Amino acid sequence: MTPEAKTPEELRYTKTHEWVRIEGDQATIGITDHAQGELTDIVYVDLPAVGTPVKAG
């Protein structure tokens, strides 16, 4: 199976190997398998406070 065939359609990807899944008013954020293989341990994630509006880019 090609990598493209295994890409879930509901995910949106960044050029830097993060992804987001929007479900209603909630978003789930992750990193691609490629990023997992290239990075060392992830120590922290810096997110905006709940309720803070965000926009692409």
UniProtKB/TrEMBL annotation:
InterPro entries: GCV_H, GCV_H/Fam206, Single_hybrid_motif. One of its GO terms (biological process) is glycine decarboxylation via glycine cleavage system. One of its GO terms (cellular component) is glycine cleavage complex. Pfam families: GCV_H (PF01597). This is Glycine cleavage H-protein. It comes from mine drainage metagenome.
